[in-house]
UniProtKB/TrEMBL annotation:
The keyword NADP does not apply. Residues 455-704 form the Peptidase M16C associated domain. This is Metalloprotease, iron regulated. Pfam families: M16C_assoc, Peptidase_M16, Peptidase_M16_C, PreP_C. It comes from Oleidesulfovibrio alaskensis (strain ATCC BAA-1058 / DSM 17464 / G20) (Desulfovibrio alaskensis). Keywords: Hydrolase, Metal-binding, Metalloprotease, Protease, Zinc.
Length: 965
């Protein structure tokens, strides 16, 4: 078949994805197109290039940023940002992998979708990558007041943030150690020490070499007509001819003997147990589907569950605090497996290593337990069928999976059509073939291509790195005469002017946009039905979910005394992961994995919209196929009523793991830490969130580690008391999501589940909140900062109006983006306004600045006051705000979102009023809002987290200093 200059290469029905898949080749250029047609309204497009870098200057990553900074048809500074401001996109981003660069977009609105496709195609193939763009996104010199030079640039700073996270360093080094001879041995993101080696010429040449249709893989997914896909692409491809692009990723030569690598990294003062290590094995190519799926199952067998033998042995050894390594990595041409421990004494390396090998040897010799195999096969298959991609569009996850083979000219369907290979594995297991034991022997025990990577805390490594940067800059500075220095100054000034120069209205008008008439005037409600069930509130959502039932049982925290609130999330995990009176935690974990898609606990704090009081709950959540609904409820009941809390060692393992996770999150997710801290100053909901998930929670856990040793009986009494206060029908909700028939079939089981719970007592909250706003500086070892400021707008007299959504959308994408990211050099900044509590928090991340960023927040009011918004700009922000309101959600997320609305009194009437107000926002609303922001600036509370300069800034401003690592 020939169409629009394309020839059909292959056509397949992929029943696992309810899709018809067609693989096309463009005759003139050789471009490949994978076109998936199905009934998913969340349409996805992506263009991906094979971009193996030859050094660690971050050229691929800098290019990924730069092509989104203006193109031939769209000559504005940042078309990408224009789309973020005013589109109904459900996904818009770009990714740099070790060997490819992907540009995906998604939308549920057809017109919007093709607007996004058009802008992205023009960006990728015809970008205006000028030397100035390269300097802005990559790196350039700036001069400080005293005449010294510094480096600046968006990617430079982003990667400094990445290199501040020990976990990222470990992951990066683990991969590199296995692939010393090929592109995977480099850092495609860019090592801050190498980024300044990159020249504009090399950067430009990289685009010319790799961003050609002959080296591209195009992808479409969803319910749009295929003919339009081909027509749109053929228009673009007509401008190109064939090209011979050398971008193959070679295979890594096999090691004859294992390797070992020691890496010093910056750690805080308390660094006696802050080492980390992984053992890494090179596995076969991704292209062999059956081996690939079998290795995914083996990954689950070894480390997938708390009860998995390798994970369990490592955690229980007491040699470390939490598992390290990402397990099976399957996004590159060759698979690899990485596992180890965090929070170790590096002197224990040998011991950890031999522990890992003795567990593997045991499994190979004694056999993997049948329950373990069954659990792994069920879990891998459930995940493939459910395809729960969270906020990621399903079609995008499918693209990513297809690329794991397609990128290397393999079969794009080999990871999509999973039934045949998975059934083949099941059949081999059924006839007694030692499938997994053989894999362990061949690829782990007998595999000499492995590398051990140890991260050793070194107090001075950060300083040494900073010294190297300083002396490099000093050498450059010394080579400059007065004239040269002036040139650097002038260049930086020119960049600044370019960044500050607004786009002309003519340029902006090239960006294709939706109008108000394209937006739905009425909210689409989520189906919900409420009825009492044995004293519980039962809420059901009739939503088609591929035969899967989702159950969320939520128990109110009202009866928990304030001092025990931080224990709730830990109790949740303990209930799921400590076994019951009939089954120990290993057996219980296997039963859950065999019968369900998983059971988890999650603490959720909501705020009621009418009186700003919290609705705080511990949810136990599970999912299973309709056929296993009875088993799911039975397991959830066992978890809630029969968990054996009295196992000290098991509890200590969970506790240490939880503490380590929080500590490792501090830097990469510093903005979340700051946000939680700020919100805790303004009301009980924020306070509760901080107690369970913020820095306060971490402090509690650290203290609890000590208490477990000194006063285990006291801890156990607390756990038991919290469980008793939580688990009861009174005040609890049972939320179920699934198709009508799935729900009907589950009802009798839900009913006996409810009946089995104790009655409980519905009481007003027992806890109090000690709320005192305080300006804080939180000190951690880090090369970058997270800068936040917050205020409670309602207490400043503001009353909610839907125009706030539009104004904040505009502030975030216009003001904060320009000032904090583009000009300030931070990786990002956002303002989050919580409509229920009235708290506005402005937070930056991976930010080189402190006071300068706070100053930007404080000048928001001034900016709004002087803003003369054009009609187009206003419509853009309205479209963007509606896009956020109508965010696409997968079935379970819809069920949970609807429940949250019910629990907080966020009625359809209220939500429709909000929509009406958004749609009718005027420029005057923007100006009026300036007064509220001015008050927020004057009275707001500051919280910053970071390393460089934080203490000095605290001294200057009188902020309280807290050292947290
Ligand atoms: Zn980036």
């Amino acid at each position: 078949m020939h169409k629009h200059g394309f020839t059909l290469v292959e056509e397949r029905e992929i029943k696992e994805l309810s899709s018809r898949a067609r693989l096309w080749r463009h005759d003139a250029t050789g471009a490949a197109l994978l076109s998936m047609s199905n009934d998913d309204e969340n349409k996805v497009f992506g263009v991906s290039f094979r971009t193996p870098p030859h050094d660690s200057t971050g050229v691929a990553h800098i290019l990924e940023h730069s092509v989104l900074c203006g193109s031939e048809k769209y000559p504005v500074k940042e078309p990408f940002v224009e789309l973020l401001k005013g589109s109904l996109q459900t996904f818009l981003n770009a990714f740099t992998y070790p060997d490819k660069t992907c540009y995906p977009v998604a939308s549920t609105n057809l017109a919007d979708f093709y607007n996004l496709v058009d802008v992205y195609l023009d960006a990728a193939f015809f970008p205006r990558i000028t030397p100035e763009i390269f300097q802005q996104e990559g790196w350039h010199y700036e001069t400080a007041q005293d005449g010294t030079l510094t480096y600046k640039g968006v990617v430079f700073n982003e990667m400094k943030g990445v290199y501040s996270s020990p976990e990222s360093i470990l992951a990066e080094r683990s991969q590199q150690a296995l692939f010393p001879d090929i592109t995977y041995g480099l850092d495609s993101g860019g090592n801050p020490e190498h980024i300044p080696d990159l020249t504009y010429e090399a950067f430009k040449a990289f685009h010319e070499t790799y961003y050609h249709p002959a080296n591209a893989r195009f992808y479409f997914w969803g319910d749009d007509p295929e003919d339009r896909r081909l027509a749109v692409l053929s228009q673009l491809l007509d401008r190109f001819g064939p090209l011979d692009v050398q971008s193959e990723v070679p295979l890594q030569q096999t090691f004859d003997t294992p390797k070992r690598l020691e890496v010093p990294y910056a750690a805080g003062a308390d660094s006696d147990r802050r080492g980390m290590m992984t053992v890494n094995w090179l596995l076969p190519e991704t292209s062999d589907a059956e081996t690939n799926f079998a290795l995914q199952m083996l990954d689950h067998i070894l480390v997938g569950l708390p009860a998995s033998p390798l994970r369990k042995a490592l955690i229980e050894s007491g040699l470390g605090e939490d598992l390290a390594g990402g397990g099976l990595e399957n996004e590159l041409r060759q698979l690899y497996f990485s596992t180890g421990l965090k929070g170790i004494d590096p002197a224990d390396e040998e011991q950890i290593s031999s522990l890992i090998f003795s567990v593997l040897r045991g499994l190979a010799e004694d056999g993997v337990p049948a329950a373990s195999i069954e659990a792994a096969m069920n879990t891998v298959e459930f995940d493939l069928r459910e395809n729960n991609t969270g906020r990621f569009p399903v079609g995008l996850a499918v693209m990513t999976r297809a690329l794991t083979t397609w990128l290397y000219d393999g079969d794009p369907f080999s990871q999509l059509a999973f039934e045949k290979p998975v059934n083949a594995i099941r059949a081999r297991v059924a006839v007694g073939e030692p499938v997994f034991e053989n894999l362990i022997r061949r690829w782990l025990l007998d595999n000499t291509h492995r590398a051990t990577v140890v991260l050793v805390p070194a107090e001075n490594s950060d300083k040494a790195r900073a010294e190297r940067e300083k002396s490099r800059l000093a050498a450059v500075r010394a080579s400059l005469d007065e004239q040269g220095l002036e040139a650097v100054r002038a260049n930086a000034e020119k960049l600044r002017r370019m960044q500050e120069e607004p786009d002309t209205p003519e340029a902006l008008s090239t960006i294709p946009r939706l109008g108000l008439h394209d937006l739905a005037a009425v909210n689409t409600p989520i189906p919900a039905q409420e009825s009492p069930l044995d004293g519980m509130r039962l809420i059901t959502h009739d939503i088609d979910a591929k035969g899967i039932l989702y159950v969320d049982a939520g128990f109110s925290l009202n009866r928990i005394p304030a001092g025990l609130v931080p224990l709730v999330p830990l109790l949740g995990r303990a209930m799921v992961e400590m076994g019951t009176s009939r089954y120990d935690f290993v057996e219980m974990g296997m039963r859950i994995a065999c019968k369900t898609g998983g059971i988890d606990a999650d603490s959720v704090v909501l705020t009621r919209v009418d009186d700003r009081t919290p609705d705080a709950r511990l949810f136990v959540q599970g999912k299973a196929t309709q056929a296993n609904a009875a088993a799911l409820f039975e397991l959830m009941r066992d978890v809630l009523l029969d968990a054996q809390l009295d196992q000290k060692e098991r509890f200590r393992s969970i506790l240490l793991e939880e503490k380590a996770r929080m500590e490792h999150r501090l830097v990469p997710a510093g903005h979340m830490v700051v946000m939680s801290r700020l919100r805790s100053h303004f009301g009980k909901s924020g306070w509760l969130g901080e107690q369970m998930d913020g820095l306060a929670a971490l402090e509690y856990l650290r203290e609890l580690v000590r208490r477990v040793d000194e006063d285990w009986n006291g801890v156990l009494a607390d756990l038991t008391a919290v469980r008793q206060a939580l688990v009861g029908r009174a005040g609890a909700v049972l939320n179920m999501t699934g198709s009508g028939s799935t729900l009907a079939a589950a009802m009798p089981h839900a009913s006996s589940f409810a009946a089995s719970l104790p009655e409980g007592q519905d009481v007003p909250p027992a806890w109090f909140a000690d709320i005192r706003p305080v300006h804080e500086a939180l000190c951690v070892p880090s090369q970058v900062n997270y800068v936040g400021k917050a205020a409670d707008l309602y207490s400043l007299g503001y009353r909610y109006h839907g125009s706030a959504n539009v104004i904040f959308k505009h502030l975030r994408m216009a003001w904060l983006w320009d000032k904090v990211r583009v000009q300030g050099g931070a990786y990002g900044a956002f303002c989050a306004f919580d409509r229920a509590s009235g708290v506005l928090a402005q937070v930056s991340y991976r930010d080189p600045n402190l006071e300068a960023t706070l100053d930007v927040y404080d000048r928001s009011a001034e900016y709004l006051r002087s803003l003369s918004l054009t009609k187009d700009e206003l419509v853009t922000s309205v479209v963007g705000a509606i896009g956020e309101l109508d965010a696409h959600m997968l079935p379970h997320d819809r069920g949970m979102a609807s429940l949250a609305r019910t629990l907080t009194g966020d009625t359809e009437e209220r939500r429709q009023q909000m929509r009406d107000e958004i749609l009718s926002t005027t420029p005057e609303d923007f100006v009026r809002f300036a007064d509220v922001l001015a008050e927020a600036a004057r009275t707001g509370t500051v919280c910053v987290l970071g390393g460089a300069g934080v203490e000095e800034a605290a001294e200057r401003n009188g902020w309280a200093v807290k050292s947290i690592m």
